[in-house]
Design a protein that fits this description.
Elements: H1 2-8, E1 14-21, H2 27-42, E2 49-54, E3 61-68, H3 71-78, H4 81-91, E4 99-103
Antiparallel strand pairs: 1-3, 1-4, 2-3
Length: 107
């Protein structure tokens, strides 16, 4: 996977890690919100890839991993209606402050 990621993200590209721990009883709603935001995001012209994940040991924990060519592309994505709706929805369903990290490949 590392070599695939190296090809997909250009030098200076941006990788996003989002972590979402559902409030007790909200697991299905968080999973549905993740499933709903992935397809329109994947269709964005600057999205190099996006996947949603559920933790194998904690059924309340979900992740989104996405790749972008640069900060500007991600910033544009962050303001699109499907992204805004996702964030508005998920923030009321998680038991922590929003945790979305921007990272650059180091190796």
């Amino acid at each position: 996977m590392g070599s695939q990621l190296a090809r997909d993200v250009p030098q200076g590209g941006l990788t996003i890690f989002g972590r979402f721990h559902a409030r007790e009883g909200c697991e299905a709603q968080v999973a549905a919100a993740v499933a709903k935001v992935v397809p329109p995001t994947r269709a964005e012209p600057d999205c190099l890839g996006i996947e949603g994940y559920g933790d194998t040991r904690d059924p309340r924990l979900f992740f989104i991993h996405s790749r972008w060519p640069d900060e500007a592309a991600f910033d544009l994505h962050a303001g699109l209606p499907h992204t805004v709706r996702f964030l508005e929805t998920v923030q009321s369903l998680i038991d922590h402050p929003l945790d979305v990290r921007r990272a650059r490949r180091t190796v």
